[in-house]
């Protein structure tokens, strides 16, 4: 048997209802898919961004804020820790590398971060895409997405509490808080990291200290940049990124720097806690989306029951012409399944598109490159939808072929 | 194709009224129809003519009695077997044509084949095109919804003939047609029945049709009577 001619005729007859149903299912599915895809992409993007920060040491305060400021460059004034810890870490055999991070200044809305060459190259992993690394105070190497040219000279401004700079734009707040005696010359551009650090301007930590009148951390001016720093001259720093030599030593270091006026955190560990919270939120959102889907399906089922009721005579004609109940069931079931599958397809596209759009907005706002991709979860959700749809279709099919043809034809 | 004679014995169809009380809508003591005969069924509206046709088509099982076509007793067949039997042996034409408006002329005519075939064979398609041509219809891809009533009834007739049935049942086939179309459809029905040696049973009020029948039966208040 071939139900396709009648399925086609049915879909054509109820084209507006079918289109409405496809859109309704599409929107219901899109919600669930978008929630899942976005959560997955955020998780991957945030994990990727924290890869370069195995252990962060800062002053005791909020762990989340330390990570938000260090990894995601969200502007916030962090309490300082004793700069001498840098020297102590540099001499610790358990440490493969340690670098200070000093924030607070901005140039054209981009955050300026004071650090060392070691961290700028992520301990030798990165090489500038253009130009070179900073070799002197007042030189800067910029992130991939910073809209400044090599050779350009800029003046940093002091970040102000409560100010939210827009990357690439100079606003009144920035213009009013210039460090007039400091000029930074761009000497290089780093490759793309797909993290907020693509929008950072990296300068020697000494420049940050000098700009703020704290000296340069060394006994003499004009010497080599970076560690070792002079124990008597070194100012405090907001955070230190530590690269442990071995994994087990990471735990030893964390224990060691969790006391005596410091706090040590594994960003990955904090993110896992965050993911758990996000996971719970996601579970609730998925649950809400599932309830939403159920309501939509019930509404659609009612709509289809009504439509099948209106088509009783049509199916009775087929039976009078020699169609079996199974043929009618196949026509109704296949029609409903096609509509529901089309709705799920539309839902997948809408969900992924929505997630993509949301990701672009997140990237624009935070610099974190979120890359949502289709996942198995999405297809599982759609599979469940089509399964439920097929069950509904079977119910409709049974309903459609129940009538006595003689009665229905003359109804 | 086997010619089909029919025998109805002690057939009654009972229904319940709105108060749940049982009443008889059709009663046939005995009716024999020889193979290839042309039988007319006449009678006032609501007398039970269409019910009789439904019983003979196996669309409605009688409350009592038997309907046999050749050696086949319809009440001995299950629902699926009756559908297959109808498809193989019965061609039906309805007063309201009952076409599928979204399908083309050709697709409507080929529709009964889709109940048993994945795709029509070349021969079956040629047969359908031949029927459509013989019935004077053009442009087979036109949708049924845009056809005139006369054209729709001719498509319905072609659909009834596509399986080369040995039984042709028509329920008021000309009632909703103008005089010219009615005459054309009547001629086509008789021609088709004659060509296929089919047993033709027509429910009608139209004297022009009834006058061409071998035998005319009256149904009055649900009771079948042979016409004088």
Topology:
The complex is a heterodimer of chains A (411) and B (228).
Chain A (H helix, E strand, L loop, with lengths): L3 H10 L1 H35 L5 E4 L4 H8 L13 H8 L3 E13 L2 E6 L1 H4 L9 E2 L7 E4 L10 E2 L2 E2 L13 H4 L8 E6 L11 E4 H7 L27 E6 L2 H10 L6 E3 L1 H44 L1 H9 L4 H42 L9 H25 L4 H5 L2
Parallel strand pairs in A: 3-9, 5-8
Antiparallel strand pairs in A: 1-10, 1-11, 2-3, 2-7, 2-10, 4-8, 5-9, 6-8
Chain B lengths: L5 E11 L5 E12 L4 E5 L6 H9 L6 E6 L2 E2 L5 H11 E4 L11 H10 L7 H13 L14 H13 L5 E5 L7 H18 L2 E5 L3 H4 L4 E6 L2 E4 L2
Parallel strand pairs in B: 3-8, 3-9, 6-7, 7-8
Antiparallel strand pairs in B: 1-2, 1-4, 4-5, 9-10
Task: Note the run of SSEs of chain A as H and E.
Answer: HHEHHEEHEEEEHEEHEHEHHHHH
- Write down how many β-strands of chain B occur, each being a DSSP E stretch of 2 or more residues: 10
- Walk across the major sheet of chain B and give the strand order: 6-7-8-3-9-10
Mean pLDDT of chain A: 85
Mind telling me the C-alpha Rg of chain B?
17 Å
Tell me the β content of chain B: 25-35%
Q: What structural class do helix, strand and pairing data of chain B support?
A: alpha/beta
Largest interface: A-B, 28 and 33 residues
How many helices of chain B in DSSP terms?
A: 7
């Amino acid at each position: 048997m071939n139900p396709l001619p009648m399925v086609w005729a049915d879909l054509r007859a109820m084209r507006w209802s079918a289109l409405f149903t496809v859109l309704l299912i599409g929107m219901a599915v899109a919600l669930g898919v978008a929630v899942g895809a976005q959560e997955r992409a955020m998780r991957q993007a945030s994990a990727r961004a924290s890869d370069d920060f195995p252990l962060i040491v800062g002053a005791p305060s909020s762990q989340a804020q330390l990570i938000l400021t260090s990894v995601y460059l969200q502007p916030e004034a962090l309490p300082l820790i004793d700069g001498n810890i840098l020297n102590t870490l540099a001499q610790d055999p358990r440490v493969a590398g340690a670098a200070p991070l000093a924030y607070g200044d901005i140039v054209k809305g981009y955050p300026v971060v004071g650090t060392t060459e070691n961290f700028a190259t992520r301990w030798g992993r990165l090489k500038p895409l253009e130009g070179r690394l900073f070799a002197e105070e007042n030189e800067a190497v910029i992130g991939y997405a910073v809209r400044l040219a090599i050779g350009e000279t800029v003046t940093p401004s002091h970040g102000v509490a409560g100010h939210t700079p827009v990357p690439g734009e100079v606003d009144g707040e920035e213009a009013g808080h210039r460090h007039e005696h400091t000029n930074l010359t761009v000497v290089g551009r780093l490759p793309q990291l797909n993290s907020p650090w693509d929008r950072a301007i990296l300068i020697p930590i000494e420049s940050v200290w000098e700009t703020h009148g704290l000296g340069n951390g060394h006994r003499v001016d004009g010497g080599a940049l970076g560690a070792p720093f002079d124990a008597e001259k070194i100012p405090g720093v907001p955070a230190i990124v530590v690269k442990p030599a071995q994994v087990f030593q990471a735990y030893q270091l964390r224990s060691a720097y969790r006391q005596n006026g410091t706090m040590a955190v594994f960003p990955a560990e904090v993110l896992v806690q965050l993911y758990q919270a996000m996971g719970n939120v996601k579970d609730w959102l998925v649950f809400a989306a599932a309830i939403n889907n159920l309501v939509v399906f019930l509404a659609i089922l009612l709509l289809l029951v009504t439509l099948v009721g209106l088509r009783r005579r049509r199916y009775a004609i087929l039976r009078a012409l020699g169609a079996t109940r199974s043929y009618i069931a196949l026509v109704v079931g296949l029609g409903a399944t096609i509509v529901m599958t089309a709705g799920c397809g539309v839902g997948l596209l809408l969900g992924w598109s929505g997630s993509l759009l949301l990701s672009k907005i997140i990237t624009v706002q935070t610099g974190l490159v979120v890359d949502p991709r289709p996942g198995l979860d999405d297809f599982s959700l759609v599979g469940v939808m089509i399964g439920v749809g097929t069950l509904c279709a079977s119910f409709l099919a049974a309903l459609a072929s129940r009538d006595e043809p003689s009665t229905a034809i003359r109804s | 194709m086997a010619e089909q004679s029919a025998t109805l014995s002690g057939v009654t169809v009972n229904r319940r009224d709105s108060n749940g009380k049982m009443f008889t809508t059709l009663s046939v003591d005995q009716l024999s129809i020889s193979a290839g005969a042309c039988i007319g069924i006449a009678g006032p509206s609501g007398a039970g003519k269409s019910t009789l046709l439904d019983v003979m088509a196996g669309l409605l099982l009688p409350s009592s009695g038997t309907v046999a076509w050749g050696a086949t007793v319809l009440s001995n067949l299950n629902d699926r077997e009756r559908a297959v039997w109808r498809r193989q042996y019965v061609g039906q034409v309805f007063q309201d044509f009952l076409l599928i408006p979204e399908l083309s002329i050709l697709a409507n005519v080929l529709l009964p084949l889709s109940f048993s075939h994945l795709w029509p064979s070349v021969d079956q398609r040629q047969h359908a095109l031949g029927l459509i041509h013989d019935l004077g219809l053009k442009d087979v891809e036109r949708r049924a919804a845009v056809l005139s009533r006369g054209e729709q009834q001719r498509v319905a007739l072609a659909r009834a003939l596509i399986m080369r049935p040995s039984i042709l049942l028509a329920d008021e086939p000309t009632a909703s047609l103008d005089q010219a179309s009615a005459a054309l459809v009547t001629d086509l029905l008789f021609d088709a029945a004659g060509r296929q040696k089919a047993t033709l049973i027509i429910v009608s009020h139209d004297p022009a049709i009834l006058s061409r029948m071998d035998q005319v039966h009256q149904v009055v208040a649900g009771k079948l009577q042979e016409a004088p």
